[in-house]
Amino acid sequence: MAAANQFSISRTEISGVSVADLAKEFGTPTYVYDSAKIAERINDLKKFDVIRYAQKANSNIAILDFMRRHGVVVDAVSVGEIHRAIAAGYSISGEPDPIVYTADIFDKSILEFIKENAIHCNAGSPDMITQLGEVRSGAEITLRINPGFGHGHSQKTNTGGDSSKHGIWHDQVPECIERAKSAGVTISGLHMHIGSGTDFEHLSQVCESMKATALEIGSSINTISAGGGLPTPYKESDEMIDIDRYFELWDATRKELEAQFGHPISLEIEPGRYLSAESGYLIAEIRAIKKMGEKLYYLVDAGFNNLARPIMYGSYHPISISSSNESTEVVNAIVGGPLCESGDIFTQEEGGFVCSRALPTANVGDHLIIECAGAYGFVMSSNYNSKPFAAEVLLHGGKPHLIRQRQTNEDLIRGEFIPDLN
User: Interior CA angle at 124 toward 119 and 125, to 5°?
Assistant: First the structure.
């Protein structure tokens, strides 16, 4: 495997654009995305027939438009994400399907949408087969199979096994075949995703399970999807996954099925964070530096309302400082945000254990950059403590482009009403 990125604890620019200039123009906290890194990661996966972006990782319409321009189709998990894709220029239908809806349920809004639009669905529950047939008899459907095992960097991201709600349990495939016949629905594809962060031993098991399930269903299968979960390096000790080996395992599975069925099988992959994580940077400003006993804290104007991964999963993100201080001294600092919540700490491990990070000495007013923040960053933002959403900026061709305005205080209360209680 190739070595991961080399992360520096000092940074003055992002993709050739000054951090200080970005902060001055757009304010803080602000998310910044490097389009060149997204393009690089798309190119990694070109051997696959179809690259389908799991847009839940980062669904800004400018990011979706960039994906579309680079030949990437999208996965959507809600009607809202479908509308985002359409706003970014995607069509409802095409070959391959430009937009696929993947979920474990059909809520009323998506069934209403399906009545009017021939969107392909990837079902994670047997009931969905029957429900699809009720609104679109004759439709094709993909089944997301839970093979009975999973893998993930956190229990909260493990999407396989009986402790996961995701997918159709592998023993229920015969039931699904009967449901499809009764509903007038054709099972045309299979999808298998066992969680974020995989290894080749697990992958081999997934490929075998995919092959067995496809053979059980039969020659109506014309697409298999490797799902997502490609690991992203967040630490220097992390290694890049061997994409060629990853593809070879899936390609061998595809070829075996083609030999059995006598027709081509399209091989899809469904990356989310692999395409967007490394492109993203959350720029914050240091607003206070203080000691609590023997511990040093850098307190910034971004909190878990902006980036929730550390508090949710104990996730590690590289952190760097853009400082006016010319000192090369390094200190151990805890990085926290402004929220009225003890858990508002960016340097913590799973379980809420606070830890420090070796960072350059800094001054109030310097900028702190949380890196590899382009996936499950802005999309998981909240208005906790009535904090506005951050701005988003896309760097392309050495120029910054505002792709989301910072939310205003007026936006915070838009849609709220005080009833007449007299």
Answer: 110
